[in-house]
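[SOLVED] Need 3D model of a two-part complex

Original post:
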Amino acid sequence: MPDPRTQLAAATPPALSQRIRGLSDRAIAWLFVAPTIFLLLAVNIFPLIWTIRLSLTDFRTNRPNNPVKFVGIENYRKILTDADTWMSLQATAHFLIWTIALQVVIGFALAYLINKKFRGNDLWTTLIVLPMMLSPAVVGNFWTFLYQPQIGLFNYFIEFLSGRDPSSFSMIGDQALAPWAIVIVDTWMWTPFVMLICLAGLRSIPSSIYEAAECDRASKWRQFWTITIPMVLPFLMLAVLFRGIENFKMFDLVVQLTGGGPGATTQLVSIDLKREAFEKWRTGYASAYAVILFVTVFGLASIYVKALNKVKDR
Amino acid sequence: MSFSITEPSRRQKWIAGAVVILYAVVTLIPLVWIIATGFKTPSDAIAYPPKVFFSPSLEGYVNLFTSRTRLDAEGLAALGPPTTWYDRIVRQYDMVITGPSRYGERFVNSVIIGFGSTFLSVFLGTIAAYAFSRFKVPLKDDLLFFILSTRMMPPIAVAIPIFLMYRQLGLSDTHLGMIFLYTAVNLSLSVWLLKGFIDEIPVEYEEAALIDGYTRFQAFYKVVLPQAATGIASTAIFCLIFAWNEYAFAALLTSGTAQTAPPFIPSIIGTGGKDWPAVAAGATIFLVPIMVFTILLRKHLLRGITFGAVRK
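Solution:
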């Protein structure tokens, strides 16, 4: 049977096939890249410019007929002097620092153990990875069930371990516990991410380095700090970069878990921004907020990438 | 047996294995609990102490897929005995099924938007990645960085103008609007991942094909595409998982016709409080496909989650 593609090519009028054949590599390159760039400009850059423009006005989406006033940098001034903003930033900082610290420690420890290559380590690695691939909103919502006082499985575990009455505390209802409730779920979900990257780092170390160190009578402890850690560090820093960006933007998991409450104890910046934009409908104000967040994450990430490249080149 | 000084001892392996397996078991409990709760009756689901062993029931699944109403004794008597197994389940609570719930629709929306955006982002990503990999594109590094940087924006920040833009274009709460949006978000992942996969295919194959008289297009789809098939497939699964799991845009930009399952599942409520078995049943149906995909993807997992930055 003749290849249908050759039939199709034969059926194409010569002029067209000639023209395609005649396309230069340069033309093909543009033809192939243009749709992607166009779509990203339309869905990312155009909205960003629009956001910057809105951020200088007092526009409100729920009152489209009101006259829009140009207010200059007034929105930015208000945001940076608003105590709520700083509380949200503080909540975000607490969330970021603790999730990253826990995930780095647990993730690295797990990777180190998996790298001992016990039997069946591949299977267990795959199972450990499962939580991070699931929908954060759906899983976060179910965790509110696990966190229920009295009937929740989490509280039951705490009772089992410490003997504390399971109805005496509520992880997501208590102002002091709620910031930890979101840290626990995020760590449960994303530790495998750090673990996988560390594992790749550990596996990239050639065993000849350890053999040489062994010949030089370096202790295991010394080998760990002078070979293992420096060799894994670039990988670990990459994992921290990814988790840092993701958790700075964190919305879905936490909004389902606590909705930002109780009070404003878990109101991360994305949740605060959502309130301003889609509940209070202060579009201009929220746009300025969005610009500030974007500049912050972009700036921090750029500085961090520079540091990362330095470590890599060392 | 070969002996190596760097090979861990048997005792070390045993301890490492025990700790890792213990962690895996603890970390999987919430997932097992979701699946188990889906098969409990509402009273078993909220029992204290939590029930590990229980007699399975399909009540959660029946409640998930149906809407029901309560009838008085007369109304029930007038209906006659229940005819199907799901009728029997709801009659225990003096209820009758009045029709399907919205879960089915929401799930279908997730499938349409997930697969639609996956197809588009992989198609556009493949051709763009090919161009970046093989041709001299002016400002190549800047463009690639620009593509990656689009992922740094908090979704809520982009959602404000998109919300306004979509309202003007009539795209809000439509499948097409969501497909475009998810495609744009996924493009950064798909371009970066596919560029890595295509970079690994030796250029010599194509050069040989070009010398044999193939055009660039022919060389692309007859030589490069088949070689990149595994990479394209795993990129597609990553794009699908993102679109499947996405919540922020779906919650803000859709409400009726195009709403996907993630904003819907948490909103399932029963009569008198939250119907946890129904929520768990909905979550199970929604999460299990992703668990299967994850297991299928395990070889390329690391690459996918780091945008191709780490290759094993």
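Edit: Residues 4-54 of chain A form one domain.
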